[in-house]
Amino acid sequence: MSTKTAAGQPAQADTTQAAPKSGRWRRRRRSRPDDPGSDVIPIEMYGLKRGTTTVLTLVCVLFAIFTLTPIAWIVINSTKTQANIFETFGFWFARPFSLFHNFALLGQNIDGYGTYAVWLGNTALYAVLGGGGATVLSAFAGYGFARFRFRGSRILFYLVIAALLVPITAITLPLYLTYAKVHLINSIWGMILPSMVTPVGVYLMRVYTEVSVPRELIDAARLDGAGELRIFFRLALPLMVPGLMTVLLLSIVGVWNNYFLPLIIFSQNRLYPLTVGLGLWAERAQNSGNTELFPLVVIGGLVTIIPLIALFLILQRYWRSGLLLGSIAN
Amino acid sequence: MSTVSLEGLTKVYPNGVEALRGLDLHVDNGEFVVIVGPSGCGKTTALRMVAGLEEITSGTLRFGDRVVNDVSPRDRDVAMVFQNYALYPHLTVQQNIGFSLANRKIPKAERDAKVREAAAVLGLADMLDRKPRQLSGGQRQRVAMGRAIVREPAVFLMDEPLSNLDAKLRVQMRSEVLRVHRKIGVAALYVTHDQTEAMTMGDRVAVLRAGVLQQCSEPRELYEAPANMFVAGFIGSPSMNLYEARLEPGDEGGVSIALGSQKLSLPASVLQRNPDLGSYQGREVILGIRPEHLSDPAQSGAAPEPGTALAADVDYVEVLGSEQLVHFTIDARKVREETVPAGADQGEIVAASVAEGVARIDPRSAIRARGRAIFGVDTERLHFFDPATGAAIAPAGALAPAG
Prior knowledge:
A: MetI-like fold, 2 strands, disordered N terminus, B: alpha+beta, six-stranded mixed sheet, six-stranded antiparallel sheet, 9 helices
């Protein structure tokens, strides 16, 4: 007699060895070899009462709905015309299906308010250079902190972490004045260089290096006459790759979604990343009645998140193992 | 080709911990010296200082005539085999072994020839294209050794290289290591915590404890004439039985040893060899009896000689086939060398109310567990130690603890 949990999966006593059975409701959850929780045991064995698991599942479902609703909305409404966005039911499609029409508009400069395609290119540039640079710097810094003993290394590390405490809004004005002095305002480097500095990246790489690059390996290489740079590039870096991928992903996402820094740095439309550009469109859509900007804001938002989702899916393998910080054997 | 001289090497960490104090050791060209001691005794620290991976706080380190205290590891011409092998995981066996040669920009043809030569010595010739993760523990260890010998170093260092192998492989690899060492013929320093390994492999063995050298001699001398209680209890398995005893004037003018409620008589020849013992009459001493110096006289039907009988309660008997290990208790007070604190004052003796001991007797003996046995003690071979300092009450002219 199989009972069902709220998620619709049958709870059976023998879970580990059963072959996949036919029929949707009796399908077993296969353990995948790379799944960290691949030893699946029946929920009864956790010692939880049936009622508890139902409630917990319900809560999780609610959170999932809460998280996914905006995305669902944006996907659905990017296919509508301006009129339909306001007049039809928000969570279902309506005729005419204008997805491709809206998409085509993204290539044009809308009423002088800027071209989406340009902004997309900018965002990609900043994210790749900024995120890539952040990864490189974090790798060097993390390795240095993890594998070298030098005076003041502890204080220096704490200083790096302490930088996380400073909210960017507090230093906006001094930031602007300083950057203006060195001609970084309205320059792509004004966006890229600050993005390359990430305390979280340094921390992550330091911890990951400590775990994945054994001290003895470096000792052996030193005895074998290798210089420090050679040790770093040839021996340590290949071992640090999962951590690097994690930092890369986090930095790229961080730069991609960064709204405040480019707002301070850029006053020229052609330099805007998507965050600022879409913000501008959204504001214009509210305040001027003439242009059909709303559908563009919606589809613009959708297109913005697609590359990130793709990146997550592609780097998934590294992302998950990077999080496991140390349960990987050499 | 070089000798290694450690002169008064000391290591004090920034937080004040003293890992090594005044170590004096000299390794001749081609000699295989083993540094042995319990965990935390400073042996790995000493090795790393010789390699250049730890800074020397004070003392002098010499390779031949050259003082190398401040020379960087890559310029010292030492090769080291690590406990965890520390192989380069993304390189093949060939690249691992040839790494040091590649760093010195030796041309590829010459490099390949040397690698092949080293691989042949170690039986790795058909594994050159594999990566470390495709090798077994013993094979990895041999790659680590190959990496070390291909450089033809002046000094060969090994940090517990066999401790990650299973017991059988370890025995096999012991002879491999010695064979390779004989072939390359340079000074070698080998660190281990296993006294069996030390005794079977070393030309000389240096026993270290809490950063201080206890004794450095050939294995036989270490076994037969330990310089102090720690060495006596550390070397030899099962370890020496150490008891609190008293030297008293015996009947007929001799000296007798009071052990608990029993008395053993000290042979006159021993007293002649060890005149210092005379000054301990009427005082406490520490008596050491090696398990193999206890026998079962009942087996041959004879009664034990007077003054050599030791009655004991048998706890259990381990039948090993080639011998039997009899675990017994007597009513003396036992000394456990691990609980004697290091340093000058070794007078703290933590004793149990009844003392256990182990005897190694003939396999055909009829001694059974839970019975009472009378052992015959080979009183010619007893060891004596000063209860305050732990030092051996050695015969005149015997070697000093460090050498």
